[in-house]
């Protein structure tokens, strides 16, 4: 049985093919206007309304719509993520799982700023670590790199400005 989404995609493809055939007879000015419109079209567009309290640990988003290259992936959908729960996304290839996660990771959705988001964009090597341990280990690496950067910055500062050496006065 063919789903409504598949029927809609097929109808959109037919309409696009018909428009391409019609564009050949159209004037060059309309084709340049279409080219300008295509340039301004972004890869992913997302609209949503945060309906939960901004300081809440739970996230409730209503009227979520997600479009990828002009194709509607989500239309007027509700998204609810409760603190302490784990979620998984299941679906066919190309249905928008990764696109939704990227939109969340890039904060294109109205996620409150006090919430941390860790979005891993690629696979990691197989290990016995849990998903949480893998994310935390990435953060530990970031913290270690930041400490190294501070040490290097201090060394550069001391090299160029030796008169700013801290004085150790004991009282």
TrEMBL record:
Q: Tell me the SUPFAM superfamilies matching this sequence.
A: P-loop containing nucleoside triphosphate hydrolases
Return the annotated region ranges for Disordered: 1-28
Name the keywords, alphabetized.
Answer: Repeat
Q: Which residues form the ABC transporter domain?
A: 76-150
Q: Which Gene3D superfamilies match?
A: P-loop containing nucleotide triphosphate hydrolases
User: Under the GO molecular function aspect, what terms does this record hold?
Assistant: ATP binding; ATP hydrolysis activity
Low complexity bias (residue ranges): 13-28
Any Pfam family = ABC_tran
Q: Extract the PANTHER family matched here.
A: ATP-BINDING TRANSPORT PROTEIN-RELATED (PTHR19211), OS09G0572400 PROTEIN (PTHR19211:SF137)
State what protein this is by name: ABC transporter domain-containing protein
Q: What is the lineage of its organism?
A: Eukaryota, Viridiplantae, Streptophyta, Embryophyta, Tracheophyta
